[in-house]
């Protein structure tokens, strides 16, 4: 038989064999949605070419929906699919809350009725607890508290992609099923100041010649307590018109600061009208350009309150706050309730400097240390005087640190996580090292999306008395 696979030249110039087209891709099949998966898609099954069952991930559906879908692309162990026709919807879908819902890929779960959404999100926490090794369903259910949800119009950080072409200027989020960017002038999750600034920004870029506007690639905006802090990332340095235009825009909308970043170069402030600041436990902390903030003030408050609640029952003098950022938790750990000494550890230099500055001004009992906790986690000696360790790592989790905590950690650990998968892995490690998971609080700062924050209290089981 003739071999139909075409020879082609790869980018490296070497000859290879073109990947064979997957015969399932493009196929239309009828499915019934069984469940909502971890990323918020409806889950269904269909028969593959070999007759075996494969998973189908469908956007914008509810369990029980009967739909005809087109398989679009291979996705992990199954196929991503798009609804072509609805045969039956036993349960009504909720009306979208955002005018951009149909196009924008940002918050894909607006079609879930409110109660179903809250139950689904809380169940993500219950599943993470099960994956951490607690196989008893009733026990996992009992450990997980009520979902703390941030309201619409409360997200204080936006990371917009920007595309300026002859077709127009787009400042927003990736469209569903595509790399196109959709403008979001009425985004329902961001704080109104950010939405308003996005709209001004789009108009400003539209007023420029396209090749001049075309260097802008993304805009990161943090709503600090005293105004917006904006970082524009671009492929080239700004020309004079761009600099002047952005400085005027900063004036017009009363931005705290606007800065420019070309490639990997350091960020250059274009206009600073005041230093952007946030307050933690009453202490003003300068926000580094593009620095990390908890996504909503309400989410930060819920996490801090859960921490204070746990600490009310823990006699702690010495606390270690790992992956502390600019101190969202550090100041309340040190200054609220019993005054405690805190060692705050963070890898990012700009965050460390901002925190050190605020600690100095507040004369707080906090020592700040810069350290890469992936490569050089705290060891047994570093941990020996701590009563409590708090950690809040990025999405990758705190594997290296948890391996050491499992053997040498203090009696109490308070864990925060923005990724249920790495949360489950890290908590399992700690449980294997002798910690008992006592409580989990799910915190929803990313309304109508699949993202979830988790707070957990762990206590080292004491050896039984002889
Ligand atoms: C989820 S944020 C939490 C920050 C802080 N706890 C808060 O709530 O604002 C994770 C933090 O870990 C820091 N980080 C990331 N990788 C790190 C590493 N390898 N070592 C130390 N810190 C790191 C980031 O800079 C960031 O500040």
From TrEMBL:
- Provide an example Pfam family for this protein: tRNA_U5-meth_tr
Please report the stretch or stretches of sequence annotated as the TRAM domain. Answer: 22-85
Keyword entries, A-Z: 4Fe-4S, Iron, Iron-sulfur, Metal-binding, Methyltransferase, S-adenosyl-L-methionine, Transferase
The organism's taxonomy opens as: Bacteria, Pseudomonadati, Pseudomonadota, Alphaproteobacteria, Rhodospirillales
**Catalytic site positions:** 418, 418 (nucleophile)
Which GO terms label this protein's molecular function in UniProt? 4 iron, 4 sulfur cluster binding; rRNA (uridine-C5-)-methyltransferase activity
Query: Where in the sequence does UniProt note compositional bias of the Basic residues kind?
Result: 1-18
**Entry coiled-coil feature ranges:** none
SUPFAM superfamilies, alphabetically?
A: Nucleic acid-binding proteins (SSF50249), S-adenosyl-L-methionine-dependent methyltransferases (SSF53335)
Specify the species.
Thalassospira profundimaris
The answer to whether UniProt assigns keyword Iron-sulfur to this entry is: yes
Name the protein family. Answer: Belongs to the class I-like SAM-binding methyltransferase superfamily. RNA M5U methyltransferase family.
| GO BP field | rRNA base methylation
The record ties this protein, via InterPro entries, to: MeTrfase_TrmA_AS, NA-bd_OB-fold, SAM-dependent_MTases_sf, TRAM_dom, U5_MeTrfase_fam
For S-adenosyl-L-methionine, which residues are the binding ones?
A: 294, 323, 346, 392
Name the segments for region: Disordered.
Answer: 1-26
Q: Has keyword Nucleus? A: no
Name of this protein: SAM-dependent methyltransferase
């Amino acid at each position: 038989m003739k071999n139909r696979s075409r020879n082609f030249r790869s980018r490296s110039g070497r000859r290879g064999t073109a990947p064979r087209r997957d015969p399932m891709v493009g196929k239309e099949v009828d499915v019934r949605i069984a469940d909502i998966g971890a990323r918020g898609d409806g889950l269904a099954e269909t028969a593959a070419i070999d007759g075996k069952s494969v998973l189908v991930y469908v956007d914008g559906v509810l369990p029980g929906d009967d739909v005809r879908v087109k398989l679009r692309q291979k996705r992990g162990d199954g196929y991503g699919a798009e609804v072509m026709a609805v045969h039956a919807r036993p349960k009504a879908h909720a009306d979208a809350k955002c005018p951009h819902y149909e196009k924008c890929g940002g918050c894909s779960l607006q079609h879930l009725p409110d109660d179903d959404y809250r139950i689904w999100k809380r169940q993500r926490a219950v599943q993470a607890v099960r994956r951490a090794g607690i196989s008893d369903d009733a026990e996992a259910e009992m450990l997980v508290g009520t979902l703390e949800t941030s309201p619409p119009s409360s997200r204080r950080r936006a990371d917009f992609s920007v595309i300026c072409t002859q077709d127009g200027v787009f400042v927003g989020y990736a469209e569903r099923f595509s790399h196109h960017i959709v403008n979001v002038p009425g985004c329902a999750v961001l704080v109104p100041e950010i939405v308003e600034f996005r709209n001004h920004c789009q108009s400003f870029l539209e007023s420029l010649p396209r090749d001049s506007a075309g260097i802008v690639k993304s805009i990161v905006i943090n709503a600090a307590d005293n105004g917006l802090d904006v970082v524009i990332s671009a492929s080239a340095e700004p020309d004079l018109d761009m600099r002047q235009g952005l400085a005027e825009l900063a004036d017009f909308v009363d931005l705290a600061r606007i800065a420019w970043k070309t490639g990997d170069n350091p960020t250059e402030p274009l206009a600073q009208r005041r230093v952007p600041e946030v307050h933690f436990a009453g202490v003003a902390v300068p926000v580094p350009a593009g620095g990390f903030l908890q996504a909503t003030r309400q989410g930060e408050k819920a996490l801090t309150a859960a921490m204070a609640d746990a600490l009310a029952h823990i006699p702690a003098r010495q606390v270690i706050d790992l992956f502390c950022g600019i101190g969202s938790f550090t100041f309340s750990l040190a200054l609220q309730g019993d005054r405690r000494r805190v060692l705050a550890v963070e890898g990012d230099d700009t965050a460390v400097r901002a925190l050190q500055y605020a600690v100095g001004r507040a004369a707080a009992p906090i020592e700040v240390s810069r350290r890469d906790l992936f490569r050089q986690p705290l060891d047994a000696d570093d941990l020996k005087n701590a009563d409590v360790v708090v950690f809040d790592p990025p999405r990758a989790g705190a594997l290296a640190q948890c391996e050491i905590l499992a053997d040498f950690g203090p009696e109490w650990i308070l864990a925060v996580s923005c990724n249920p998968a790495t949360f489950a892995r890290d908590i399992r490690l700690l449980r294997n090292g002798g910690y008992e998971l006592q409580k989990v609080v799910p915190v929803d700062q990313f309304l109508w999306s699949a993202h979830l924050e988790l707070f957990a209290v762990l206590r080292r089981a004491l050896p039984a008395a002889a």
